[in-house]
Amino acid sequence: MMETNPKKTIRHELVMVNRKKLDITGVLKVESFDHEEFLLQTEAGFLTIKGKNLHMKNLSLETGQVSIEGLVFAMEYIDESYQGEKARGLFGRIFK
Prior knowledge:
This protein has 96 residues and is mainly β. The protein has one domain (13-94): Immunoglobulin-like. Helices cover 15% and strands 55% of the residues. It has helices at 80-83, 85-94, and strands spanning 13-17, 21-25, 27-33, 37-42, 45-60, 65-78. The protein has a 6-stranded antiparallel β-sheet. The longest helix has 10 residues, at 85-94.
């Protein structure tokens, strides 16, 4: 018997080269960005990328691919069910 409602496979990958080039797949939406911080909604949750002189080199929401260049300092997934107050604090600053 064939399954009529198959589950969607989550596909999300990060490839970083020398902390200066970042290729990301599975991006659903770019929430916000500037030269120091990006906030992306991915298939694996919200992802923040912090750094210096960050800029979007390539964006295709049809394929879910984003390329970012600049010096990457940190990357962090935001998940309220695991981080509680810390996640709410970051969302509170972003979505004032």
